[in-house]
Amino acid sequence: MRPRTKRALPRTAAWLAATFGLALAAATAVSARGYHPPAGFIGYEPDSLLERLEKPDSADIARACGNIAAPWAYRGRLGRLNSMRSYGRHHADGAEARRLADFLMRATTIDTATKVPSTSLPCDPAQAKPVYLVSFHGRGRDTFALLRFDLAAAQFFDAEEPLGMVRMGADGDSLWATLRDVVDDDPLLRGDRPHPAAEPAAVSFTGDFTSAYSLPEAIKKVRPSYPAIARAREIEGLVTIQALVGSDGAVKDAFVVSGHPVFRDDALEAVWQWRFKAASHHGEPIAVWVIVPVNFTLQ
């Protein structure tokens, strides 16, 4: 039986607006406990996800580490340390890949990918956490599943687009055992599957947000270079960057929401170098997500 789909939107803070030069607009403040993909990222494509994982040809399984936050997003050269990394890759044949996919798709509900909270994990094997990245291959494309055994949840994405999430439920033990069969040299998988202290309620996946009383103010703007290939072909366009402005006014994370691929690297390169007067809440500086549209025009 296929999962029942559920359109569950994340709880968000107030949506604030402002304009600064290249067009800085809209902010959502994030608590000190961590940050999550912003409200605009619904990450809910159940039909596509079901079709992608129906009959995978094979899969690769690796330990995930680094910045486990919006793992589908490209962050550019200056943001490479903010990307998720993986190591210890093992290949799974078609039968093993389909077994993993079947366990994942037996969940009763596909929900929004933004309900999986972000985290940062050390890449030292001695400090490994039970988080694995499964790359399913089939139909000429890859579909990724981030298995968060620490939360008993799986998050799905395709390159840079979130697709959804499911709770592992009773199939968590079967998923753990299947991984152990494939990744037979992983000491973490030799033990019992970790169980969260209690299954989190849906609201706990949405993060802790607060409204900002003042928006960040751009005090240093770096204009992007115009790509030579775009100029030669007379291509113009708008790139929308989602950026996290820290309480110190520096850009802590940045990735492309939309825009022509030819402009992506130059837009990111510029926004990573912006500096701000931080947003505040009750007089205290706080971290906020902001949307930075970057226009590329030949004039």
What do you see in this structure?
By secondary structure, the protein is an alpha+beta fold. It has two domains: 41-206, no CATH class; 209-296, 2-Layer Sandwich (TolA/TonB C-terminal domain). 15% of the residues lie in helices and 35% in strands. It is built from five helices and 17 strands.
Tally of separate helices: 5
Shape: globular
Overall pLDDT metric = 82
Q: Summarize the biggest pleated sheet.
A: 7 strands, antiparallel
Low-pLDDT parts are 1-36, 201-209
When the domains are counted, the total is: 2
Helix and strand element order: EEHEEHEEEEEEHEEHEEHEEE
Q: Classify the helix fraction into a percent range.
A: 10-25%
Name the structural class. Answer: alpha+beta
Measured between the Cα atoms of the first and last residue, the distance is 56 Å
Radius of gyration: 20 Å
Overall number of strands: 17
Proportion in β-strands: 25-35%
How would you briefly describe this protein structure?
By secondary structure, the chain is of the alpha+beta class. It contains 5 helices and 17 strands.
Main attributes of the structure:
299 residues, alpha+beta, TolA/TonB C-terminal domain, 2 domains, seven-stranded antiparallel beta sheet, six-stranded antiparallel beta sheet, 5 helices, 17 strands, globular
Describe the secondary-structure layout.
Elements: E1 4-5, E2 25-30, H1 46-52, E3 58-68, E4 84-92, H2 94-105, E5 109-110, E6 119-121, E7 131-138, E8 141-148, E9 153-158, E10 161-167, H3 172-182, E11 209-210, E12 217-220, H4 228-232, E13 237-245, E14 251-258, H5 261-271, E15 275-277, E16 279-281, E17 284-296
Helix pairs in contact: 2-3
